[in-house]
Each structure stands twice: as C-alpha cells, then as structure tokens.
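Hey all, sorry for the wall of text incoming. These are the two entities for the joint prediction.
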Amino acid sequence: MTTHRPRILVIDDEPQIHRFLTPALEAAGYEPIRADSGEAGLRELARRAPDAVVLDLGLPDMDGKDALERARRFYEGPVLILSARHLEKEKIDAFDLGADDYVEKPFSVGELLARLRAVLRRGPHVEAAPQTVVAGDLEIDLAMRIVRRSGTLVRLSPKEFELLRGLVAAGGRVVTHRQLLTAVWGPAHAQDVQYLRVFVGQLRQKLEADPAAPRHFVTEPGVGYRFLAG
Amino acid sequence: MKDRERGVLRAGIASGYVAALGLVVATNGIAWAAGPRLAGANLAMLFLAPVLVSAVGFGLGPALLAAFAAAVSFNFLFIEPRFTFWIGHPADLLTFSMFFAVAMATGWLAGRERDQAQMARRHAATVGTLLAASRALAAATTPDEVAQALADQLMSVGAGAAVVVLPSAAGPRIAGGPAGLDRLGPAAAEAARDVLEAGRATDDTATGYRFQALDGAGGRVAAIGLRASTPRTDTAAEALVSGLLRQGAVALERAELAAATVENQALRRADDLRSALLNSISHDFRTPLSTVLGSVTTLQDYGDQLKPAVRRDLLDSIREEAQRLNRYVGDLLDMARLEAGALTPKREWADVREIVASALARIGDRMGSRRVVRDFAIDLSRVKLDRTLLEQAILNVLENAVAYGQDGTRIEVAAYEDAGQVMIAIEDEGPGIGADAVKVIFDRFRRLERASDRGEGLGLGLSIAKGFIEAMGGRIAATSPVADGRGTRFLISLPKSIHTPKGLL
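and here's what came out:
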C-alpha cells in the first residue's frame, strides 16, 4: 500500500470487535488504530490524528457521549458511532454532539465500511458547505435562494427554504430533529417534531420525483433527516 | 337475642304488673290482719312498701300501677267511711293525698332509675357485641374469611340465618353463611344478583331471604341476605345489625384491597423479570451477535486477502461467541424453568466428587492458566440428588470464579462432610465482592460493574445455581472477602440421606 492509507481509530472496549474489525480494515486498505477505552481513545486521537473515528457509545470508563464531546473540542474529522438499537436517545444525543453517522449493532463489515467511505468522502466536519448543490434533477443555490427542478423554478416558502438549507448544508450527514427545529423555528420549538413532518412532506411534494419514495430527503427513524445528493 | 329469650323478657314484663298487684293485695291482707293497731300515717307507710318493691323489682310501669292500686285499696278498705271511695274526714283526705303523691313520686323515681340502669346494661351489651364483631372482622384477612365472620356475627345477634354473597367473575357466590349452606335456591340467587347489580333491596318471602346491598366507600361490596322468616326486631337490635353491616362493609373493602395488592405485587415481580429478561437479551446477546456477524462478513468480503492465521482466528472467534450465545440461551431456559416452578429433580444416588470433576471438565479451556486445586475427602457419603442440576449449579459457580479470578490465580475446589452434610467449597483468588454486595450476589441479573467482567454472562448463573441447589433441598452461601480482602468462597451443602460404608467407596 502507499503511504496514503487512511488511519481509522476504533474505540471499543470489546476485544472481539477489534478481533474482526482490525483485519477487515486492513484488508480494505485502511490503517486501524485500536483503543480499548475512552481515555485511551482520546489519547490516540490527539497523538495520531486519524482520518476517521469509529466510536462505541457503550464504554466502561466514560460515557461514549462524553468521549465524543471531548473529542470534538480538538478533532474535526468524521466520527462514526456504533450503538445498539434500544439506545435511541443516546444516538440522537450523539448526533447533536457532532457525530457524522451511526451503525447499529450487530452490523456487517460491508455496511460499516460503506458508511466509513461515505463520511470520509464528505470530509471534515466544519468545512464550509458549498453554496450551490446539484442533486439529480435538483439545482439548489443557497446564497441566491433559488431552487430549480429539471430547470423549472420551484417556489418555496421561507420556512421550507430554511429547512432545505439546514439539510443541504449538512452535506449528507444526519441532522437531528432538534437541530432542524432549533435552526428553522427557534429553540422554543425544539420538541415540535410534527412541524418537521409537515414541512419535510411539503419539500418532498415539491422536489421529489416520487414523494412517497423519497431519494433526497431521507428519514432517519427516531433521529432526524438527511439530504442525499444521489 | 334468641327468640326464647325475647319471650322470657316479654313474659317478665307482664308478670311485673301481676306481681305488683299481688304485692298490693298482700299488703292489704297484712293491714287487715293488723286491724286497728295500725292506723293513719303508719298504715300509709305500710302501703308504700309494695310501691317501692315494685319500682326496684319491676320498673316504672308496675311501680305506678302499684301506687295506684295501693291508693285505691287504702282508700276503699281503711279510710272512713270504709268500703266506699268517699273520704269523710278532712285529715284523712290530707293523709290520702299525701300518700298518693308520695307513692307516685317514689314509684316514678325508683322505676325510672331501674329502667335506665337496664338500658345502660343493654347498651354495654351492644357495644360489647360490636367490639367483638370488629375483632372477628379484623382477624379475617381474605374477603371470604371476612364474609364468613360477618355472617357468623349477624347470626349470633339473633338476626336469624344470614348469608353474605360476594360478586365474582363467575357470578354471585355465597362467601359466608350458616354451616353447610353452599348454594341458594334459584329465586334467592336471582334476588342476590339483583341486589348486587342494581342495589334493589328485596323483601320477597318466596326467596326465603330478605336481601339488601352492602356498600363500601368504593362501591358495592356484597349482598346480605337475612332469613325472611325472622321477625323484625326492636330498634336496638336493628341498630346493632346495621352497625355490624357497616363494619362488615369496611372489612370487606379492606380485604379486597389487600387481595388486590398481593396480586399487583406478584404481577409487578413478573413484570420486573420480563423487562430484565428483555434488557438482558437486547444487551448481552448483541455483542456476541455483532462479533459473529462482523467476523463472518469479514471472511466473506476479505477472506482472500487475509492471512491463514487471521482467518483461523476469526473462525475461532465465531465458534467461541456461538458457544457463549448457547450458554446464554441455556441460562435463560434454566431461569425460565425455575420461574415457572417446573423443576422436578430426578434424584439418584451419586458421588459428589464425580459431579464436581465432570463440571471441571466441562469448563475446560475457559480455565485458561488458572490453577485448579482439588481437595476431596477420601471418605465421602453418597447423596441422593439430581446429577444434571448439581453439575450445572457447580459449573455456574466455577464460571463465576473464572470470571473474577484472573489468569494465574488459584481456584480451590473441596468436597467433604460436615455435621451430617456433604459440603462442596469453591474458592477463588479474585478481588472479592465485599460484605454488602455478597448479600445480593444470588439475585437475578446481578453483575458487578467491572471492566474485566463485561460481556461475561447474563448475571443469571448464581441465581440459577441457588435455585437448583435449593430444589434438591440443599443450601448455597457465599463469603467474601475470604482472606487479605480478596477472594470469594461459595459453600454448597447437601443433606446426607444415608451413610455408605467405607468398604464400598
């Protein structure tokens, strides 16, 4: 391999997970770095500056969310969360704290690596979002507030546009209900998920080829939404 | 009050009047016999005697009758002119008037006094009955016991045969009544249902019972049937019955609440277990499943690029995790069997040492580099027990010792006899548990939060071991720390049913 093997830090206290993830990452062309606790993970993160982090939320020595919060103070690269389905609240919190994506346990290596490739492609977390986005037949100019579908101008209400901006600017990452509601309606409405359902529905009606089977405005059940260009 | 008593009482009241008149007649006889030796005021004093005696002995009514009869006969027989009600002499008129007034006054005072004393006695008796009833009702714990106690109390105060009918899922049923009565006639049953459902009191002699609703604070609690042939009693007895019914309603409600509480607690325990099981399955099964799925997909996707040693390691990992899952499933099934109470030990004569050895063999590789020290008594009685249950229990204790005793430490396994029991001791050199935690070590899903232990079992093993040992009549106890603040010792004791002669061992 060349010197450009991306370094992936895996923070997980289960030795069995490292046992297959290490060879799998190596075989897929990455350089895995193993950490068995939150403290060790933060240390490796500071020392080795990995290209991406795979973080298990259930750590013995600290809350996985605390680890994420501390990591985000000095690390801007993508973070992929491993979590269990029954810990939905934790998952949402993790997104609010700046996680890029998640994989539910148990997972197949193929799924994990696909998500990893996606977050690596999107690049650093704080990179300025592009002002114009082309996704399929959609052209979105965030600066000029212009949206075209198949070349035809689509009229959006101010709230619809703010919602669109919130989703598109995330660059394919999951945006939680709370993040979207706070950005568009303000902190007082952070719990009013039904607003989102209505307005996302309107965006799909106006911008999706088939609103019943959305390709761009994808629901992440219980967590939020994400905008996919493809 | 029984019917006969009431009859005696009624006869007593009538005979009071007769006796009062008799006393007056007797006084007239004495006065007649005394003749002229008694006259005027002395004679009047003599005639006061039957009035006072009647007042003290028979009460207000007879006393007033005696006073009237004494005055009339005194006038008729002894005041001039005799044998008329005419009073000739003005002085005699005064004497007679004084006598009449004194007789009426003393008779009234003494009679009223007596009647009040009697009423107080009856009050005391009522209060005593109610107190006894409340004690009897308080002693009853289940709704059925309360119903029977209430029926007994109603019958003991003379209300006649009484039945207490409680509502139930299968319709009204007799919960308390005369001995031997376990079903009502169809008409009476219909009337009881009417009262329970609609609260309509019945007074239908055709049913044999007069039913009335018994209502507590929270609604209808029962229907009470009193024998319709029982005559309506006086107001005091009626008050007693209604007092009993009020107490009965409160007691029935209390008993029903208590029964509901017990039921709720059982449901809550079952609920706790269910949620603990679900939690355990979602949490403890996920890691081994993640490992199996992750390792298999790694082999599928990248098998060609992996070194043979790595491939072998992944396959080992898959096998180990599958075995772990199998143990978890076994634990859950064992626990479910214990919970369902479906455990019936198949007892046979066995040598405990063989079973310990077989458990040690089953734990096999998982011992790692821990050193097992066996200390078996040469002379050990055979015990009648279920081999499978004991082996599983010992295995669970050994697995606990392996989980907490690090590599390189000792695990001591001993079997010996003590005080008529066969003992098995398993001691590890782990970090120990501590006096507080050791108390709850056999609780379900109890697991020490320690890094080295993560993913090592469901926290069911020891409670299963306890369940199995106790199902065979044995006991299990834990001590920790054992020495120098470290180590845990489990002691299993099995009752020795028979001693086997040395020669047979």
